[in-house]
Amino acid sequence: MPNIQLNTHPNIHFSTKIKTSMMELAISAISGELLSRFMSFLIKKHTSLASLEEKLERLQQLILRVHTVVEESEGRYITNSQMLVKLGMLVDAMYQGYYVLDTFKYNPYEEMTTQEQVSNSYALSCLARLNKRIRAASCATGINSSVNHDLEAVMRNLESIVANITEFVILLGGCNQMPKRPYDSYLYIDTFMFSRPVEKQKIINFLLKDNSSNGAPVVLPVIGAYHVGKKSLVGYACNDSLVRSHFYSVLHFNSDSFQKVDHETFLSVRTLVIVEFISDVDDSEWLNFYSAISRMGTGSKVIIISRLEEIARFGTVKPIQLRRLSHAEFMYLFKVLAFGGTDPENHPQMASIGMEIAKMLQGLLLSGNVLADILRKNQNVQFWLHILKRFRNSVEHNLFLFGEHPKQLVERNRPTDITMFVSPSAAPLHLIPPRGDSSFHNKELSKVTFGDLLQGSSTIVPKGEFQILAWQSRIPPFTKFLATCIEEKYCCSFPENKKRRWSCVK
User: Fold this and answer.
1) Which helix (H) or strand (E) holds 488?
2) Of 111, 165, 202, 369, which has the maximum CB count within 10 A?
3) Please, which residues have CB within 8 angstroms of residue 121's CB and are 6 or more apart in sequence?
4) How confident is the model at residue 276, as a pLDDT?
């Protein structure tokens, strides 16, 4: 049988070589183009970062100048109403500046899952890696451009304020100094009335103003939402040395005790009366009380505290409306409370985690105080991350059960679910908002505190219904915030519509 030899046509080899060469040239061209784009981006990025650093340095200098003036203002008696308006502008601009500065300093904390970590360990092709980096960097630039707008706006505002601050500083120098510096703003922030400098000055001015010609006591309503620090503000203002020496005595009443007073209760001396209303009262009851306090000496004053707008009708002067802390104020407060005397710049990862916790709190002042106290005592990244996860799980659980954040539930005086702080498999545990002073005195206070539940340090949680100490204020009148926890077994049914409402059957 003859040998058959297959000859490959030389044109086929030549065509294959051409295709291979063209492929190599194409890959080389694409790689070169991507590399060129990436290098151009890096140069542009480096230039923009240098410019950003200069802006942040300038922002920090502006904040420092404004903060210096604000701190000096809080050590003076300011009686001029227009100066108080200006002080309010300084305070708002200062905290907004701190918020924007921290936003740039501390990137949002991102946890990497095990799957992502393994995935990132695989070698990707050179072109894919390069293209991915360019897309990611471009995305980051877009985010920075969005935040950069806030930076520019805050800087313009601070520049304008600093340029016109000279007159305020000169007038401030003519105001009398307080006998004692109110605080060291960094180390002892939890022992003074944070923010509220304008409201504090207004209360002090009201108390020291001479109204002897009016005869009857002047009444100032202090109205504010749930747990915004109304009693703490009034207590802090009344603790001023001039105020203490101005009045012969200070009397405290609540919704129950004010109805039991008679004309013999009050002496004919200059007296300060503070009344807290947790519910509305009849006009006739107030008139009887006001008639009794009219026996007090000339220059006596009355402050009524309530979260009910209706109570303001009993005032004889314009009420002080105590708003909630702004987002920027709350973020700054939480940061300083959580770090105490530690510099956050030395712990950027903890600072980032702290910002995430503060954002999740959405301005819950009482919970913020408790969490910050826990974090300050345990300044460890893993512990802070542990607290973040626990609080996040609790928030998500409340959103699942009730369709609302705990903040909304608290504001509407509804119970919040804190089961996730104990154990996901535990019987449902609800935190019931306070139902008035009298409801607590008949119950024994549990050794478990709200802080113990938050950090999971309590291994044994009481059964059934029990009362806990939620928080105790660090400043006069050292108010104790008590709450009731109820463990109950129930099933919750939800309607099929998107907006969840809860109905529970024990």
Assistant:
1) none
2) 369
3) none
4) 94
Instruction: Name 476's Cβ contacts closer than 8 Å, sequence gap at least 6.
Output: 235, 236, 238, 239
Q: How far apart are CA 117 and CA 105, in angstroms?
A: 25
- The bridge status of strand 301-306 relative to strand 271-277 is parallel
- Alpha carbon distances (Å) from 345 to 20, 155, 241, 339, 446: 55, 21, 37, 10, 39
Query: Does residue 15 sit within a domain?
Result: no
Q: pTM for the full model?
A: 0.77
Q: Angle of helix 197-208 relative to helix 230-238, nearest 10 degrees?
A: 50
CA distance 205 to 142: 49
Q: Which domain holds residue 235?
A: 197-322
Q: In this predicted model, what pLDDT tens digit does every residue of 333-349 receive, in sequence order?
A: 999 999 988 899 999 99
pLDDT at 48 over 70: no
Angle between helices 126-163 and 10-73 (to 10 degrees): 20
- Distance (Å, rounded) from C-alpha 390 to C-alpha 213? 58
Q: Does 242 lie in the same domain as 341? A: no
Distance (Å, whole) CA 34 – CA 45: 16
> For the chain, what is the domain count?
3
Using DSSP, state whether 472 is helix, strand or coil.
Answer: strand
Cα separation, 320 vs 361, whole angstroms: 26
Label residue 12 exposed, middle or buried (CB < 10 Å: 0-12, 13-18, 19+): exposed
The CATH number of whichever domain residue 226 belongs to comes to: 3.40.50.300
The pLDDT assigned to 90 comes to 96
Nearest to 330 by CA among 146, 102, 161: 102
Closest by alpha carbon to 155, among 235, 52, 62, 47? 62
Helix axes 381-402, 365-377, angle to 10 degrees: 150
Distance CA 83, CA 81 (A): 5
On the CB side of 304, CA atoms within 13 Å amount to: 29
Answer yes or no: is pLDDT of 401 > 50: yes
Q: What is the CA radius of gyration of the chain?
A: 31
- Report residue 60 CA to chain centroid gap: 21
367 and 482, same domain (yes or no) = yes
Residue-level pLDDT at 395: 93
Question: CA 27, 29, 31, 36: dihedral to nearest 10 degrees?
Answer: 180
Q: Write down which residue in 295, 322, 349 finishes a domain.
A: 322
Q: Beta strand pairing status for 320-322 and 301-306? A: unpaired
Bridge-based pairing of strands 429-432 and 480-487 is: antiparallel
Which pair of structure tokens corresponds to residue 438? 């009298």
Backbone phi, psi, residue 186, to 5°: -105, -45
Q: Is the peptide bond before 477 cis (omega within 30 degrees of 0)?
A: yes
CA distance 154 to 160: 10
Q: Are 483 and 338 in the same domain?
A: yes
Q: Which residue has the tokens 């650093």?
A: 53
